[in-house]
């Protein structure tokens, strides 16, 4: 049994003070640290939203558009975001309190300006893979626990892709180690994950 912990986008940009802040986003940091230090995982992977300046998901790249409204990217509907997690900026860095010493592998995503990548496994158009599937398969992973930011976007898409792309692997979502952008969206995301075969757990179910 090889157990992996997948920490999604625990970056300054998604924490209070960041460019796309998630309410209570920083509160996942101590929980993530406790999970990493628990000795329950053979492997810790952290994803990092890593956009080039002027990324197509930024409202600022679309004249006259405002953030948090639907727009279009490469002919497909796209939620438009504030500029966030630009490669190499403080906004894209992991939260300073995240204990990165436990991280075995960093998976960056969102580099293609023409398509967004909520999932740590592949772009939203499902054309390009990030390489995470092959990495986890090569490690012989049999269980993946997923948490982080934001529940209703990158965490949800990553968890559902994990079920789909790693057949036979048990996938769990750690609710209290995650925060979402929209409370209604979080409810729907949890229902959707459960429906796709993701088990919903809390850190207390895992921690000694
Ligand atoms: C995310 C919106 C845009 C996330 C990333 O990490 O959930 N959300 N980029
Ligand atoms: Zn992004």
From TrEMBL:
Annotated Gene3D superfamilies: Isochorismatase-like
Enzyme class, broadest EC rank: hydrolase
GO molecular function, one term: metal ion binding
CDD domains: nicotinamidase
InterPro entries: Isochorismatase-like_dom, Isochorismatase-like_sf, Isochorismatase_Nicotinamidase
Keyword annotations of the record: Hydrolase, Metal-binding, Pyridine nucleotide biosynthesis
GO biological process terms, semicolon-separated: pyridine nucleotide biosynthetic process
Pfam family for this entry, one: Isochorismatase
This enzyme's EC code(s): 3.5.1.19
Pathway membership: Cofactor biosynthesis; nicotinate biosynthesis; nicotinate from nicotinamide: step 1/1
Domain Isochorismatase-like: start-end pairs: 4-204
Entry similarity comment: Belongs to the isochorismatase family.
Name the UniProt record assigns to this protein: Nicotinamidase
Organism: Ciceribacter ferrooxidans
């Amino acid at each position: 049994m090889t157990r992996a912990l997948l920490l999604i986008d625990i970056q300054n940009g998604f924490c209070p003070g960041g460019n796309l802040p998630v309410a209570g986003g920083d509160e996942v940091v101590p929980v993530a640290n406790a999970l990493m230090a628990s000795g329950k995982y053979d492997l810790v992977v952290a994803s990092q939203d890593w956009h080039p300046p002027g990324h197509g998901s930024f409202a600022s790249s679309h004249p006259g558009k405002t953030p948090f409204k639907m727009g279009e990217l490469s002919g497909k509907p796209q939620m438009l975001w504030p500029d966030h997690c630009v490669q190499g900026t403080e906004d894209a860095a992991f939260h300073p309190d995240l204990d990165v010493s436990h991280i075995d592998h960093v998976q960056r995503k969102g580099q293609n300006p023409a398509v967004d990548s909520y999932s740590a496994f592949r772009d939203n158009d499902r054309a390009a893979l990030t390489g995470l599937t092959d990495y986890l398969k090569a490690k012989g992973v049999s269980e993946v626990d997923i948490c982080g930011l934001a529940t209703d976007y990158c965490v949800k898409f990553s968890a559902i892709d994990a079920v789909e792309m790693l057949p036979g692997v048990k996938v769990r979502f750690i609710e209290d180690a995650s925060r979402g952008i929209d409370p209604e969206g979080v409810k729907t995301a949890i229902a959707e994950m459960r429906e796709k075969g993701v088990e919903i757990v809390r850190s207390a179910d895992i921690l000694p």
